[in-house]
């Protein structure tokens, strides 16, 4: 499936009007099935779908490692010699993994904001996380952090073409870029990054920095905690609940990472210089 389509638009500027084609990021639904049962539907930009699903299952506490999955593949349509349906991806869990007991209509329709809030959600993440970042001794220089947003933006090919995608990137403690993923949903971009790490045997993500191109919501903070990321940085603001969760989990949360400035809301001991 393509990630970019072109649509006609009327462009107005300085009193003149022109008709031209504009590049748009593709948005399509992806249904996630586990052992034949629907689990979640998310609106995503096609590409890296297996990474997305792996990251989602890990950050929801359903799997802890790549060995917890036997297969992950697109489903087939109906009829004789049916084609693959690239908007449905089915995962088969290993026998030792408990099957999720989830009502799809209740709270697993994934949107750009989290569906839970308050102290109960903080407790739920604390109980579910297997890779808490609190004990990670990593230190990252302020200079390395301030150089990261430019690296992310330079690697966002799809954003450069469409202007309509969020980005997430993973860096090592020295500031070297490991992976970048883009998606119409900021949560999907993060899941793709975490899914890449899971595929490459890097979970828990000790000694890393997760950078997101927008704000730091509770949902993104929860995903960082579940994957064992010790430092989450955002170019925009965090939410109050994101800061609360970061403090509870021992995650370093950086916001407003722009130019040579930043705010460090929790665990400032990890940012040096």
From TrEMBL:
Q: Where, per UniProt, does this protein localize? A: Cytoplasm
Pfam short name (any one)? FdhD-NarQ
- Residues at the catalytic site: 114
Keyword field contains Cytoplasm: yes
Keyword annotations of the record: Cytoplasm, Molybdenum cofactor biosynthesis
Task: Report the superkingdom from the record.
Answer: Bacteria
Keyword Phosphoprotein among UniProt keywords: no
Q: What is the similarity comment for this entry?
A: Belongs to the FdhD family.
Entry function: Required for formate dehydrogenase (FDH) activity. Acts as a sulfur carrier protein that transfers sulfur from IscS to the molybdenum cofactor prior to its insertion into FDH.
Q: What is this protein called?
A: Sulfur carrier protein FdhD
Organism, scientific name: [Mycobacterium] zoologicum
């Amino acid at each position: 499936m393509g990630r970019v389509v072109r649509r006609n638009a009327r462009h107005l500027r300085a009193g003149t009007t022109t008709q031209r084609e504009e590049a748009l990021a593709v948005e399509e639904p992806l249904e996630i099935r586990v052992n034949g049962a629907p689990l979640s539907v998310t609106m995503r930009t096609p590409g890296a779908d297996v990474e997305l699903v792996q990251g989602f299952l890990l950050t929801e506490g359903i799997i802890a490692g790549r060995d917890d999955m036997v297969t992950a593949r697109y489903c087939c349509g109906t009829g004789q010699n049916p084609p693959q349906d690239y908007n449905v991806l089915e995962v088969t869990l290993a026998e030792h993994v408990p099957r999720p007991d989830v009502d799809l209509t209740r709270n697993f329709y994934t949107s750009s904001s989290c569906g839970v809030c308050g102290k109960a959600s903080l407790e739920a993440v604390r109980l579910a996380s297997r890779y808490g970042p609190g004990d990670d001794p990593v230190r990252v220089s302020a200079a390395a952090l301030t150089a990261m947003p430019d690296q992310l933006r330079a690697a966002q090919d799809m954003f450069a073409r469409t202007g309509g995608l969020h980005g997430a990137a993973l860096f090592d403690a020295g500031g070297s870029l490991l992976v970048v993923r883009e998606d119409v949903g900021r949560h999907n971009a993060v899941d793709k990054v975490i899914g890449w790490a899971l595929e490459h045997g890097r979970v828990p993500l000790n000694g890393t920095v997760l950078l997101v191109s927008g704000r730091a919501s509770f949902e993104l903070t929860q995903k960082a905690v579940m994957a064992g990321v010790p430092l989450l940085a955002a170019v925009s603001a965090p939410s109050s609940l994101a800061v609360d969760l970061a403090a509870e989990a021992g995650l370093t949360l950086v916001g407003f990472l722009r130019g040579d400035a930043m705010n460090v809301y929790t665990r400032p001991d990890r940012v040096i210089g």
